[in-house]
Amino acid sequence: MTTDHPMIVDAHEDLAYNSLGHGRDLMRSATERRMFEPQDHEMGGATTSFPDLIRGNVRIVFGTPWVNPCRSEFSSKPCYSTAEEAHSQALEQLDYYKRLEHQGTIAIIRTRSDLEDVLSSAPPKIGLVVLMEGADPIRTPKEAQEWFDAGLRIIGPAWGATRYCGGTKQPGPLTKEGHELMEEMEKIGLILDCSHFAEQSFFEALDEFNGHVIASHSNCRIYCPTDRQLSDEMIRKLTSKGGVIGTVLYDAFLDGTWQKGKPKEAVTLSQVVKNILHVGDVSGSRRSSGIGSDFDGGFGYESIPLELNTAEDLYKIGDALRTEGNFTESEAADVLGGNFLRILREALPS
Question: The CATH number of the domain where 223 resides is what?
Fold first, then answer.
């Protein structure tokens, strides 16, 4: 299968959780699944699948193990109350990705050569970089090495608060274990994902962690004034360390005035362009932004910009950057994939 679309990296999708936790068949297109999934599905109308990703030339996806704390607002099961439960559920999601790899659906990217093999593969193949969102499945900081050996390459310590740090809606510092985890991650060579960090944890982590950093799926607080997004000071701090910020394609995070029930045309790709332009203005570089769609991560088709139907349409962000943001062809290609590729080529083991 060939496509004229530019190569894309999507730095955040909860693929395993959607399949295992919600029974979503990711081998069927999102538009097809919408015809038989419940209208009120907790994750919203489906937007992603492996066929959609291939058709859109989304060659690299950062796929999460993400496990749901029982205290969270999501009612879906399974959920965890203990570190052991979190560990077991995250391993099940990692095993899901390994089964897909064995079937030939994806290739798990563990090394730089794996990355280049995926990028040059014909016919095109999806490469998956394993990103843990919320570090509670790591029972002790020393266990990070075992996860790395199993294929994990990126850790986001926070979702809400975890044993390691404060998180979204739950402010707080790095814990003692959190400081130890920073040390272990740096020693191993794991990438630090700063999305969902509480502000105090964010700055403490970046002050002491000297490895590669990203925010896989975070937007600008200037447009959505909540602690889930990044302030200008946070953007400067992360990008001063070479970090890249993945723009989330959730209407509520792109426009803080948006509310569920508004028509789909209420938010367009113009708001995505504004978010990416702001990151560039604050950081002083257009090499600081990427895409972290978070597709089907608690919202669906009804809650993404007008021009987007499924993951196949991510290339349209590049078109909007060129026409509305005066991005060059090269700058737009960097946002679509090149900026996150730079991080991977620097951070992955040889």
Answer: 3.20.20.140
Domain assignment present for 322: yes
Q: Does the pLDDT of residue 126 top 90, yes or no? A: yes
Is 1 contained in some domain? no
Secondary structure (3-state) at 38: coil
| Parent domain of 256 | 8-347
Cα separation, 292 vs 212, whole angstroms = 17
3-state secondary structure of 154: strand
- Tell me what the mean pLDDT of segment 14-37 comes to: 95
Q: 18-53 burial, b if ≥16 CB within 10 A, otherwise e?
A: bbbbeebebebbbbebbeebeeeeebbbbbbbbbbb
Yes or no: say if 178 and 198 are a contact pair by the CB < 8 Å rule: no
Domains in the chain, number? 1
β pairing state of 152-156 and 213-215: unpaired
Please report the sign of the dihedral spanned by the C-alpha atoms of residue 309, residue 52, residue 14, residue 131.
Answer: negative
Q: Report if pTM > 0.85.
A: yes
Cβ-Cβ contacts under 8 Å for 187 (sequence gap 6 or more): none
* Alpha carbons 211 and 142: distance in angstroms, whole number: 17
User: How crowded is residue 107: how many other Cβ atoms within 10 Å of its Cβ?
Assistant: 18
Question: 127 burial class (0-12, 13-18, 19+ CB within 10 angstroms)?
Answer: buried
Position 137 in a domain: yes
Name the pLDDT band for 199 (thresholds 50, 70, 90): very high
186: left (phi over 0), alpha (psi -120 to 50) or beta: alpha
What gap in Å lies between CA 320 and CA 318, rounded to an integer? 5
Question: How far is Cα 288 from Cα 350, in angstroms, rounded to an integer?
Answer: 24
Considering the domain boundaries, does residue 13 fall inside one? yes
